[in-house]
Amino acid sequence: MKEKGSIRIIDIISFVIGLSLAVGVKLIFHACAPMEDGHFMNCHKAENAAMVTGSLIAASVIVRYAVKIRSVQTSSFVVQIVLAIITVFIPGVIIRLCGMADMRCRSLMRPAVIILAVFAALAGVAGVLMSLRGSAGKEE
C-alpha cells in the first residue's frame, strides 16, 4: 500500500513537470520573438517540440491512471524517461538555437527545458524503481 502512495506522488510530480514544460515553454520561458518580417527563427521549432514532449510526459501519467496493469504502468514510466532524455537534447542539439548567447532561447528557454526534463527523467527512474520494487514479491 505504501508503494502505491509513493507512486501516486511520483505521478503528481511527473504530471506537474510535464504541464510546466508544455505550458511554460509557451508562456514563461518561451523562445525568441518573431523577426521583423514576421517569420519565426529556428528556435521556435525547439519551443514547439519541447511543448509536445512536455504534453506527452503529462499524457503518460494519464495512461498510468487509466490502465491498472502493472507492466503497462512500468512501461509508461520508461516512456517518460525516454521522452525526458529526448527533451534534454531538443534545444541546441536536435534543433539549433540562435547564435548569440544572450538571446532568449539560449539564456532562458534552453536551461529551463533541460532542468525540467532532467527532473522528469529522475521522476521516471524513481517510478520504475518503485514499480519494480512493488511487483518483486507479486507474480502477475
Can you tell me about this structure?
This protein is mainly alpha-helical and 140 residues long. It has one domain (2-31, 39-134). Helices cover 73% and strands 0% of the residues. It has four helices and no strands. The chain has helices spanning 2-27, 43-66, 70-89, 104-135. Helix 2 runs antiparallel to helix 3 (70-89) and helix 2 (43-66) packs parallel to helix 4. The longest helix has 32 residues, at 104-135. It is elongated. The mean pLDDT is 89.
Strand content: under 5%
Characterize the main sheet: none
Q: SSE string, helix = H, strand = E?
A: HHHH
In helices, the fraction of residues equals: over 70%
Number of domains: 1
Count the DSSP helices.
4
Short description:
By secondary structure, the protein is mainly α.
Distinctive features:
73% helix, 0% strand, mainly alpha
Summarize the helices and strands and which ones pair or pack.
Layout: H1 2-27, H2 43-66, H3 70-89, H4 104-135
